[in-house]
Amino acid sequence: MNPSPSEMLVRVARKQPVATGIALFELVHAEGQLLPPFSAGAHIDVHVPSGQIRQYSLCNDPRESHRYQIAVLRDPSSRGGSQGMHEQVQEGQTLRISAPKNHFPLLADAPQSLLLAGGIGVTPLMSMAAALGASRAAFEFHYCARSAERAAFVEQLRSAVWGDRLHLHFDDGPEAQRLKLEVLLSAPSEGQHLYTCGPKGFMDAVLAQARLSGWRESQLHYEFFGAAPVVNAADGAFEVEIAATGQVVSVGATQSIVAALTTAGVRVPVSCEQGVCGTCLTRVLAGVPDHRDMFLTPEEQSENRQMLLCCSRAKTPRLVLDL
User: Fold this and answer.
1) For the structural domain made of 238-321, what CATH number should be given?
2) Do 59 and 35 contact (CB within 8 A), yes or no?
3) Which helix (H) or strand (E) segment is 83 a member of?
4) Cβ atoms within 10 Å of 181's Cβ, excluding its own
């Protein structure tokens, strides 16, 4: 297994359950070296033994250079990624990973930060809390889960030096501890920033309430773990033109752009294949995309200058792509 220059081999130093259905993986450099630095909110691409490449947020303190920690929820609807991590990856095993990437950066100098996690979405916010706590910045951390048994890292978070800023909200808990978004997100201050991560339904509710309460888009920061597939009975075929060569490729009504291009011999780099990671982000030179991703902001989508080819489609008969 020979990694590319932007990749490395790591050894699984520790694997342990941290909540119902969630396993912690502690990764160290395979040759005992220090790992590349990362910033709060970063993730790594992990080459799962089953063949998929999946993105997992780094949840440990960004000041640490001897290890990366990730937590993986075993998803019953997994296409092989999370199941592969739980069933095929064991302590002592070697994995290929990417260098850390960050599409969810923290504004460390913000006057006030609000961290709002749903379920496994706690992982990137843990590294943010560690960074904010180290800099003695003002923040609150709200962690929502179905139950205490399904909430990972609770004791670790409680025992942190900033543990008094942690607020736990469990669906099966008393009414008094339930999260009330309309109260929490009301009247945002000028310098306040919201960071949220978790299941799509949870994040949709958080962002909708924030916008309703007057939060500006520049104050909202979020990262989706997976996009729900968008099925539209009205989807039809369309064409994509490759600007560099003039080649025109037909995309079927039930076919992704990536799949159509691959069949035509045009390679497009992909990773998550769910419109989340941004690997297949491509410039659009003509035509109007039908955006179905969770990577671009609403403003970026409205500009129609770029699109994710793994999940988005076309509103016009042809798209001209900068490929």
Assistant:
1) 3.10.20.30
2) no
3) helix 81-88
4) 17
